[in-house]
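Quick one:
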Amino acid sequence: MSVRADAALLGIAPGSAALSIERISYLPDGRVVEFTRSHYRGDAYDFVAELNLT
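Output:
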C-alpha cells in the first residue's frame, strides 16, 4: 500500500505521525508461520517497550 492509502484508511493527513509494526513468527525449523504488518494513528496509541538485562 502507499503512504497516502495508509493515511486515508487511518483518517489522517499524509505525513502525520503513525506507528508501524511488522512481526514475523517462525517455526523451529525456520519456516515463517505468521506475518503481520500493522499501522496505528500516532495520536491514538502509546508505545511502551521494557528492556531487561539478564
